[in-house]
């Protein structure tokens, strides 16, 4: 089975026999998995129908051996959603409803896995006692797919039973899921697209650096800051194209090849944020600028080094500082009236087109129209919404950027941009 | 250090007293230079882009030219950027509803630069944050370079924080204030010789209307007057709004700043805010008031007010006196600027226009204002035909909730 090819189903406990396989006929689902064991007769029947049966070793992302593979099964994801403001204690530092999102985990995993790897992401069932709507399932599956991974299809017990019976709301949910998977398969190439961002987040993402580096990604995403994570040892392979700043998270000095890359990046006009131990390797000319409350800025070649006055402490503030020191001028996507939505902008390798995935963690259509803004002169925009025909989207030019108004949607839509 | 009693139970330093005296003298000079300053220009302007430049140029000429006001001076331009930069009403960009539009700001900057200003500083206390103003604009989807390049020496500063200053500067109110005797502010308000307020034509859920005077509410640094202000000294970072201290009076500003004259005064924000606005306009006099009413908001000042509706009055207003300019602005919205406290459009609050007039800041009497350009009747838009207005009746204590 090739890269990113598994479309797994977490076999429901209420499906007791191989007759349930009839539900999978003609669907993109090509892999069965279970926490315990498949019922007798299911596995041979599945294999006869070309459906693999696999048991994955789900692990916390911090415990995965990223040199192995080819499948990396992350088990400590979140069931995606929003606190919806019901409990202020769940609010983030902005007081905004907290969003449980997994995009940052998948982006980090993609940065760490070898070429050709495949990422599966799973989580426990949702804690929210409210009944799940179809939108919740769409969001969970779309989120993983949008960032280049797969989440096993999971159904709550009642809809699973109803789906098997072909009746009730569960049957409708099942049909929507199957249609969504087919819709995604028709756009499989998007999974290979790479993030469009101006900010590199560089770390080994392990050991003493695991918490800070992970939280920087998590909280940068929450602040709508686009980033590209890069594992330090792979920095030499990373593209400089379009990058304006590199946040080097780790307290330790980078190994020689990475240091060489960072020096070249900074000397050629980039901004490097680093702690003192690393920054001292970047002795530059001119006077230091100490006016920033947390960083000293110094010139290095054509670029700048921002030296943290103290060890990094707060990942929320660190992500925000990196963004502001780089400048929001280089934002690769902005959402207006976003509420509990997040956007992920990813581009095709040749840069001729890109896709902005928009995920609505509230799982109900926004009361206010949402607009997105991207840099550059996109020639054409197409709105992709599961269950609906593609539709051209009007582009409004504003200060050298392209702006597109989105229709209301409950969980997910995408805007494909053609830049040719 | 010699201290003086202000008559409000507070003392100020000799240096502070001298600054107050100088401010009073400057204010008096300004009034003397521009007479009663009751000339206000109104112009129809149907769109943004290049149109505001041509319109404002004519309007400034109608006011007698701005060269004598700004030539060789450092000019501060206070914008109105109320609300989060990514919040919109419907799909309308925020500069077409709640914010001063950058094309109006850019036109004003260019004209002020062409009139010989030595330096122009664009100012705003950006909504709940200490981010550089340029970055706040990027977040709104603007390109601040268009403003920075509109004149030869244009700078920007978020006045919620110290910015490029080393300390906050005290501006006392000549003759004493209504709520505060003075304010500690970002250095820019001290350094600017001329103050320009570019407000937006909007109703307001606390003050009835927000035009050039209410715009000045945002000059107060949230490090001192914000919800997370420091207790003794200004906070290092900006966060939160101005609800706790200025609106509700639930706590004092940082103790390093001038304190309230009468802590026993009403804690009702609809009593307090109009008076604090009046105090601010007395502490930092506005020399040129501009109101962006090309597109605007009826029913509230921002998207968080449920009655707020985008409107397109197609009008610009400018004057050398903010009270008179705002009075004309109110009339253009379909309101009577002579309305008293708790009268339309001040149904739920006191009238800032009345308070400012009583404090000697200018006249709100349309009969005493020399109106130039488009007559009010030809440009008036009845805001209440678009929205029922921002007021939600407050239930008196003990009254049961409506069924």
Overall morphology of chain B: globular
Principal-axis shape of chain A equals globular
User: What Rg of chain B, in angstroms, do the CA atoms define?
Assistant: 20 Å
Determine Rg of chain A (CA atoms, Å). Answer: 22 Å
Query: Care to count the β-strands of chain B?
Result: 14
First-last Cα distance of chain A:
34 Å
Describe the structure.
The complex is a heterodimer of chains A (420) and B (403). Chain A contains nine helices and 23 strands. Chain A is of the alpha/beta class and 420 residues long. Chain A folds into three domains: 8-191, no CATH class; 197-330, 3-Layer(aba) Sandwich (Rossmann fold); 334-419, Immunoglobulin-like, CATH 2.60.40. The two termini of chain A are 34 Å apart. Residues 84-94 of chain A have low confidence and may be disordered. Chain B is α/β, with parallel strands linked by helices and 403 residues long. Helices cover 28% and strands 18% of the residues of chain B. Chain B is built from 13 helices and 14 strands. Chain B has helices at residues 14-33, 51-62, 67-70, 102-114, 133-139, 145-148, 187-191, 222-225, 243-247, 269-283, 322-332, 352-358, 376-379, and strands spanning 3-5, 11-13, 39-44, 74-78, 119-124, 154-158, 169-172, 182-185, 194-204, 208-210, 288-298, 309-311, 315-319, 370-373. In chain B, a hairpin with a 5-residue loop joins β1 and β2. The longest helix of chain B is centred in the N-terminal third of the chain and has 20 residues, at 14-33. Chain B starts with a strand and ends in a 24-residue tail after the last helix. At the A-B interface, β15 and β22 of A face α5 of B.
């Amino acid at each position: 089975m090739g890269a990113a090819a598994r479309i797994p189903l977490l076999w429901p406990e209420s499906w007791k026999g191989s007759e349930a396989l009839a539900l999978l006929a003609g669907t993109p689902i090509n892999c069965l998995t279970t926490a315990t064991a498949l019922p007798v007769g299911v596995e041979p029947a599945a294999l006869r129908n070309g459906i693999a049966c696999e048991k994955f070793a789900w692990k916390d992302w911090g415990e995965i051996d990223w040199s192995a593979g080819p499948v990396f099964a992350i088990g400590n994801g979140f069931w995606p959603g929003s606190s919806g403001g019901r409990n202020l204690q769940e609010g983030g530092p902005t007081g905004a409803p907290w969003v449980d999102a997994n995009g940052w985990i998948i982006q980090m995993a993609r940065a760490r896995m070898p070429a050709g790897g495949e990422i599966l992401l799973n989580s426990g069932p949702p804690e929210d006692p409210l009944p799940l709507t179809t939108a919740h399932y769409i969001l969970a599956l779309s989120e993983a797919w949008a960032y280049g991974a797969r989440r096993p299809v999971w159904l709550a017990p009642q809809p699973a039973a109803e789906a098997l019976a072909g009746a009730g709301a569960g049957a409708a949910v099942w049909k929507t899921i199957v249609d969504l998977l087919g819709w995604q398969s028709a756009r499989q190439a998007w999974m290979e697209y790479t993030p469009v961002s101006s900010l590199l987040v560089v770390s080994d993402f392990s050991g003493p650096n695991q918490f800070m580096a992970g939280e920087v990604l998590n909280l940068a995403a929450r602040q709508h800051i686009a980033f590209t994570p890069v594992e330090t040892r792979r920095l030499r392979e990373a593209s400089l194209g379009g990058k304006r700043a590199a946040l080097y998270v780790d307290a330790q000095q980078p190994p020689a090849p990475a240091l060489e890359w960072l020096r070249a990046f900074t000397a050629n006009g980039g901004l490097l944020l680093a702690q003192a131990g690393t920054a001292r390797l970047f002795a530059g000319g001119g006077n230091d600028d100490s006016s920033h409350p947390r960083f000293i800025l110094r010139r290095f070649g054509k670029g700048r080094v921002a030296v943290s006055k103290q060890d990094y402490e707060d990942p929320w503030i660190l992500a925000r500082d990196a963004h502001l020191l780089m400048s929001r001028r280089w934002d690769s996507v902005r959402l207006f009236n976003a509420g509990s939505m997040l956007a992920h902008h990813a581009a095709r390798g040749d840069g001729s087109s890109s896709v902005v995935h928009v995920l609505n963690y509230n799982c109900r259509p926004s009361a206010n129209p949402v607009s997105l803004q991207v840099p550059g002169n996109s020639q054409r925009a197409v709105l992709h919404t599961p269950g609906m025909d593609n539709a051209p989207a009007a582009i409004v030019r504003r200060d050298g950027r392209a702006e597109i108004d989105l229709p209301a949607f409950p969980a997910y839509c995408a805007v494909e941009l053609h830049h040719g | 250090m010699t201290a003086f009693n202000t008559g409000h139970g507070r003392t100020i330093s000799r240096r502070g007293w001298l600054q107050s005296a100088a401010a009073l003298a400057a204010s008096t000079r300004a009034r003397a230079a521009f007479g009663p300053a009751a000339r206000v220009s109104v112009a129809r302007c149907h769109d943004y882009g290049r149109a505001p430049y041509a319109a404002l140029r004519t309007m400034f000429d109608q006011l007698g030219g701005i060269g004598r006001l700004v030539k060789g001076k450092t000019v501060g331009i206070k914008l109105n950027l109320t609300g989060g930069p990514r919040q919109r009403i419907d799909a309308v960009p925020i500069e077409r509803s709640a914010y001063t539009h950058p094309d109006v700001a850019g036109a004003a900057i260019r004209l002020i630069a062409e009139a010989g200003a030595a330096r122009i500083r664009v100012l705003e206390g950006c909504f709940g944050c200490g981010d550089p103003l340029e970055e706040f604009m990027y977040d709104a989807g603007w390109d601040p370079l268009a403003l920075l390049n509109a004149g030869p020496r244009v700078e920007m500063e978020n006045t919620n924080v110290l910015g490029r200053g080393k300390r906050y500067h005290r501006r006392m109110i000549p003759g004493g204030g209504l709520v505060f005797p003075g304010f500690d502010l970002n250095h820019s308000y001290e350094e600017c010789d001329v103050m320009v307020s570019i407000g937006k034509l909007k109703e307001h859920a606390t003050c009835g209307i927000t035009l050039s005077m209410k715009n000045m509410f945002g000059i107060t640094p949230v490090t001192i007057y914000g919800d997370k202000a420091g207790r003794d000294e200004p906070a290092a970072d900006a966060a939160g709004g101005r609800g706790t201290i200025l609106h509700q009076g639930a706590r004092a500003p940082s103790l390093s700043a001038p304190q309230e004259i009468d802590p026993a005064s009403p804690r009702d924000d609809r009593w307090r805010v109009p008076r604090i606005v009046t105090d601010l306009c007395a502490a930092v006099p506005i020399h040129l008031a501009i109101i962006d009413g090309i597109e605007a908001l009826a029913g509230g000042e921002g998207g968080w007010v449920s009655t707020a509706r985008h409107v397109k009055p197609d009008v610009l207003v400018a004057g050398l006196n903010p009270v008179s300019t705002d009075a004309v602005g109110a009339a253009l919205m379909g309101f009577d600027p002579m309305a008293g406290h708790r009268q339309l459009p001040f149904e739920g609050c006191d009238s800032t226009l009345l308070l400012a007039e009583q404090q000697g800041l200018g006249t709100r009497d349309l009969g005493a204002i020399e109106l130039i350009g488009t007559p009010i009747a030809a440009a008036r838009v009845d805001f209440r035909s678009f929205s029922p207005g921002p007021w939600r009746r407050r239930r008196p204590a003990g009254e049961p909730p409506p069924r």
